[in-house]
Each structure stands twice: as structure tokens, then as C-alpha cells.
């Protein structure tokens, strides 16, 4: 206990005090990002029109790799299938990681934009349209913008940049693929890591928070086993439909009666498959769902509760134990408090306090958490992409709703959204590099 206390005091004493980013550096970033905007706009519209789905980002990766080489980065391709790692060493100083994702989604774009995607791809044997409806094209463009800004300002900082372009974020697999391929063994391990995500906020604004900013995600797959028979003779069979129905209702009491009501936690059953017609009792019913949470304790409680209610629902009917599979789909991203406070000061200074605000965690899940969980102080923040008037109108009762990420109508306004994102990322990185 004593030792822990001493260690805590020591680590407090060792916490570096961060100097404020000098004003000329800030205006330098703004001037450079504004100056290179036509380049970013062209890249954005090209990426938007040519999206690729998870682990098929070959054209995208090739394009990013070529641009990063032109900027002077040492680029390694095919890290974690289609991922790329671009390293730039510039003297002794901290190593900073900046992540972008590259994948689009298998869905049709309905924005009607002149540069809308008509691309198609085959996934799991079936062909579908592909769209950048999560804004990963905004992230890639601002990632390039930040890289170029930092290269142009090379004389003003010291350290190592590790810019990574990750595949397959949408299927929560790309970060793992890169780590399994030796990301932090073959390349310098970062002291800090940053990633940003476009969000339906007003453009020109950034949002962030301490602690959890995305959720733990676990999927549910349960097969309730019964004994099929004639619908007129339930006594001669064992009905898995009633067992599944009871489970779907009762499992919600794990959320409402067992979890701390102040903590976030969701259990959703999104699919029930069983039976063919009304007069046959089927042999089995499959139930699928998702579990979301922020804290590890809530996560453990929900997982245990779902399993217990599934077993109990079957036991109540005298049925065999169900086949319960709870598969982890990703951990929550937990931002570093020290890094967020330090970056918050710079964001408020650069964009104005009203345009750089704390926001609640998102209930979605993100595999940037895998990099954070390697013990790297990290910050995941959000940048706005919509006209502030449209955002205000959407908040008004009866106002026109704006399309959220993953909507076929998701249509970020490129300028100034990309500028703000590139500026914010450049400032966040400059702020932790040596000088
Ligand atoms: Zn997404
Ligand atoms: Zn995304």
C-alpha cells in the first residue's frame, strides 16, 4: 500500500507540465491548411467516388501510400492485409501515431452529389454498392492534410510521426490485423495516439471527452433447442418458440433490474429465426443480438445475465441447455485525461471555446480501442461536417432531420469540414511533439 502511494506521488511529480502552443504555430497551421485545400478537395472527391469495402482497400491504400511517399514518409504497405504505415523521423522527441480508416460500407449512396459513389463490390458472395457513408474519406483527407502540414513545418518540431491507414474498421477487424502483423514491433511504438471521426455536428466544431468515448460491443448468438412436432399437439413436442419469446422479454430485466441505472448498458435482440409455417412446432430457434456498455463491470454483468436468463428460459420449459455464444466485438475507447486536457486547451484557443466542446460518449463501437489498450495515452475526437444552420434546424421541433453516419444520405460538406479536421489533427500532434 505504502509503495503504491510513493509510486503515485513520484508519477505525479514526473508528469510533465505542458507549455502552451505558441500563437505563430497556430496561425501557420491555418495558413498552410487553407493553402493546400484544393489538393485535399480533389483527393476527397476521388476517394468518395471510389470507396472500397473492408480488406479490399487496394486502390485507396495505393493512393494514400503514393501521396505519403511524395511527402517524404517511409511507407510500408500491406500491414494487416491492406493497411499502410508511414513513418517520418525528425530528430529526438516523442513518437506520435495518427490513425485513419480506409473502408467504405456495402450500401447504396442516395445523396445525389455530383461525386456520389456508383462503386460495387462482392462481399460474402453477393454483390452490393459501396459508399463512404461513415466519413472515412473525410478522415483520410484530413490525415493527409495533417501529414503535409507537419512536413512543411518540420523545422518547428522534433520527434517521429507514425501515420497509419487502417483497413476494415467497419467490421472491427483492421486494427487487430495490423497489430497481429507486428505494428508496434516492426515500427516505433508511439508515446501518444490520435484519431478523429466525422460526426453530424456543425462544421468548424470539434467534440471530445475524457474517459470512455465509444462502447464495448459484444454479440449474442443463442440457439434454443426443442423437439419439433404438430402444431395441434404441443404436448408431444417441446416448443422452442415460447422459450425464445420468454428469453427476449425476460433478458431486458438484466438491464432494468440488475445493472446500476446510472451506468450505460444496452441489450438488443435484433433477429429471431425459427419455424416455417403456423402449424409446425420447429426443432430450434436462433436468437441474435448485441450488448453495449462502457465500463468493464457493466459489461461482465450483462454478459453473465444474458447467459443466465437464456439457460433459465430453457430450464423452465424442461428443454436442453441452449447453445449460447457471446462474442466480443471490440472494447470501449478510453481517452487519456492528461492528453484530453492538454489538447482541449489548444482546440479552444484555435477554434473558440464555443466550437470546441465536450460531448457525451457515443454508443457505437470502434477498434481504435485496440491501439489504446496497448498502453498508449490516446485521444479520439469528433469533427463536425454539416452546415451549422442545418444542424440547428434539425434540433428544432419539426425541423428537417440530418443524415447520421451509415445513412445512405450521409453527405458531409467538404469545405470547411476537411480544413477543420486537418487543422485540429495538426495542432493536436504539434502540441505533443518536441520543439
Ligand atoms: Zn462506421
Ligand atoms: Zn467510422
Features:
signal, 4-stranded antiparallel beta sheet, disordered N terminus, Bact_exopeptidase_dim_dom, 435 residues, hydrolase, 8-stranded mixed beta sheet, Aminopeptidase, binds zinc ion, 18 strands, Peptidase_M20, Alpha-Beta Plaits
Give a list of the ligands.
zinc ion
- Count of separate DSSP helical elements: 14
Give the % helix. Answer: 25-40%
Q: How many β-strand stretches?
A: 18
Uncertain residue ranges = 1-18
The tally of structural domains comes to: 2
| Alpha-beta classification | alpha+beta
Rg, Cα atoms, Å: 24 Å
Name given to the CATH architecture of the largest domain: 3-Layer(aba) Sandwich
Biggest sheet architecture: 8 strands, mixed
* Spatial strand order of the main sheet: 1-2-6-3-7-18-8-17
CATH class of the largest domain: Alpha Beta
- Give the overall shape: elongated
Distance between the termini: 38 Å
Query: Could you name the CATH homologous superfamily of the largest domain?
Result: Zn peptidases
Amino acid at each position: 500500500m505504502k509503495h503504491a502511494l510513493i509510486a503515485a506521488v513520484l508519477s505525479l511529480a514526473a508528469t510533465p507540465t505542458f507549455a502552451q502552443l505558441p500563437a505563430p504555430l497556430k496561425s501557420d497551421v491555418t495558413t498552410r491548411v487553407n493553402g493546400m485545400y484544393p489538393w485535399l478537395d480533389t483527393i476527397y472527391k476521388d476517394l468518395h467516388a471510389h470507396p472500397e469495402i473492408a480488406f479490399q482497400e487496394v486502390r485507396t491504400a495505393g493512393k494514400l501510400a503514393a501521396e505519403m511517399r511524395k511527402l517524404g514518409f517511409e511507407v510500408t504497405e500491406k500491414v494487416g492485409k491492406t493497411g499502410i504505415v508511414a513513418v517520418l523521423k525528425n530528430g529526438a522527441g516523442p513518437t506520435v501515431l495518427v490513425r485513419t480508416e480506409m473502408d467504405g460500407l456495402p450500401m447504396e449512396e442516395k445523396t445525389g452529389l455530383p461525386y456520389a459513389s456508383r462503386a460495387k463490390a462482392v462481399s460474402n458472395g453477393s454483390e452490393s454498392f459501396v459508399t463512404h457513408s461513415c466519413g472515412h474519406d473525410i478522415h483520410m483527407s484530413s490525415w493527409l492534410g495533417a501529414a503535409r502540414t507537419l512536413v512543411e513545418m518540420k523545422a518547428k518540431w522534433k520527434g517521429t510521426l507514425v501515420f497509419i491507414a487502417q483497413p476494415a474498421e467497419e467490421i472491427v477487424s483492421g486494427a487487430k490485423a495490423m497489430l497481429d502483423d507486428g505494428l508496434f514491433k516492426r515500427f516505433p511504438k508511439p508515446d501518444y495516439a490520435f484519431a478523429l471521426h466525422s460526426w453530424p455536428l456543425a462544421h468548424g466544431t470539434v467534440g471530445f471527452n475524457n474517459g470512455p468515448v465509444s462502447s464495448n460491443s459484444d454479440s449474442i448468438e443463442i440457439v434454443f433447442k426443442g423437439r419439433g412436432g404438430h402444431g395441434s399437439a404441443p404436448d408431444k413436442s417441446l416448443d422452442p418458440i415460447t422459450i425464445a419469446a420468454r428469453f427476449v422479454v425476460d433478458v431486458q430485466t438484466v438491464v432494468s433490474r440488475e445493472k446500476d441505472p446510472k451506468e450505460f448498458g444496452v441489450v438488443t435482440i435484433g433477429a429471431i429465426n425459427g419455424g416455417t409455417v403456423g402449424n409446425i412446432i420447429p426443432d430450434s430457434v436462433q436468437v441474435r443480438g448485441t450488448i453495449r456498455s462502457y465500463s468493464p463491470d457493466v459489461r461482465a454483468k450483462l454478459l453473465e445475465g444474458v447467459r443466465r436468463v437464456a439457460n433459465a428460459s430453457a430450464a423452465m420449459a424442461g428443454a436442453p441447455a441452449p447453445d449460447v455464444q457471446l462474442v466480443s466485438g471490440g472494447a470501449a475507447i478510453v481517452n487519456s485525461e492528461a492528453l484530453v486536457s492538454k489538447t482541449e486547451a489548444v482546440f479552444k484557443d484555435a477554434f473558440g471555446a464555443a466550437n470546441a466542446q465536450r460531448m457525451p460518449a457515443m454508443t457505437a463501437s470502434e477498434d481504435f480501442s485496440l491501439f489504446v489498450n496497448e498502453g498508449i495515452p490516446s485521444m479520439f475526437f469528433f469533427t463536425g461536417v454539416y452546415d451549422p444552420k442545418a444542424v440547428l434546424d434539425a434540433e428544432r421541433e419539426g425541423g428537417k432531420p440530418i443524415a447520421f453516419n451509415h445513412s445512405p444520405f450521409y453527405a458531409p460538406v467538404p469545405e470547411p469540414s476537411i480544413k477543420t479536421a486537418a487543422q485540429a489533427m495538426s495542432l493536436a500532434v504539434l502540441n505533443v511533439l518536441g520543439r
